[in-house]
Amino acid sequence: MSDLRDFPDASFSGVHHGPLQAGEWITLTDPKGRRHSVFLERGKIFHTTKGGIAHDDLIDGPDAVVIRSKGNVEYLALRPLMADYSVSMPRGAAVIYPKDTAQIVTMADIFPGAKVVEAGAGSGALTTALLRAVGIHGEVVSFERREDFAEVARKNVTGFFGGEHPAWRLEVGDLVESLAETDVDRVVLDMLAPWECVDAAASALVPGGVFCAYVATTTQLSRVVETLRAHGEFTEPRAWESLVRDWHVEGLAVRPGHRMQGHTAFLVTARRMAPGVKAPRKKRRPAPGAYGDDYSGPRRADTPAETTEARDSSATDT
């Protein structure tokens, strides 16, 4: 009887059990914790400073083993998790790291069977997570402006799932110009100017659908949030970042690690209102000067420019 945990290829989980096979990626970790991604091929040798490791010594053997190099150094051999694969995959564009991918999948509420539009595809790291979350009965449509990046993403995604995922369609082009999808549940944007796609996203999203943007800088963050407010038919945007810090734990020596995953990007989410329905205005008064003479960004039609008198009144009002 076959191992029921060994999901068939048709499930496209990216998870494999049983003996290691040629054509798979593995992760080799040395005693200092340094990781090396290795694509297994018969007859090949992975060379390290501590001697070579023959691929044939791993192929047809079990997962999660320790193997010695020719220099008698032990290496831990494991099939990579999706998080391991995403940070070690060949890159065209920079990848979205697992800490942000996890936030996107959870906070944008990516669910089995969802119809998701993504731009840009980059190197495919987020795409693999979206596809695993929606499953074979969902749909992910990825837009990528650059053909070379799209090709890298295609190779990485098909490499992870072991073939073309039936729920994925990759489009080379601009989302604003090419998006024809309707009844979309989620729109996830990883691009330089996501505010340019707000109108297109609003037209595609179902009422209650989630808009999610991943942006690196505070100027991008401000522009996309204010564009969503100016549009008027999205709920008040939520913006945040996540920081991850490891801990060193040895007996009574418990302390924060010396390294941490600090700022990578900001995330912004908002919900689509029903067409023609305006979102309630935020009640909290803006900070003094927030929309003063120096502000030139998007503005709701019913938000007048802030005057000097209004700023002075706001600053003294108790």
TrEMBL record:
EC number: 2.1.1.220
InterPro entries (UniProt xref): SAM-dependent_MTases_sf, TRM61_C, tRNA_MeTrfase_Gcd14
PROSITE patterns: SAM_TRM61
Residue ranges with Basic and acidic residues bias: 296-318
Keywords: Methyltransferase, S-adenosyl-L-methionine, Transferase, tRNA processing
Top-level taxon in the UniProt lineage: Bacteria
Ranges for domain tRNA (adenine(58)-N(1))-methyltransferase catalytic subunit TRM61 C-terminal: 85-250
Catalysis: reaction(s): adenosine(58) in tRNA + S-adenosyl-L-methionine = N(1)-methyladenosine(58) in tRNA + S-adenosyl-L-homocysteine + H(+)
Annotated segments matching region Disordered: 275-318
Gene3D superfamilies, per database record: 3.10.330.20, Vaccinia Virus protein VP39
Pfam families reported for this sequence: GCD14, TrmI-like_N
Keyword Glycosyltransferase in annotation: no
Subunit text: Homotetramer composed of a dimer of dimers.
This protein's name: tRNA (adenine(58)-N(1))-methyltransferase TrmI
Species in which this protein is naturally found: Kribbella alba
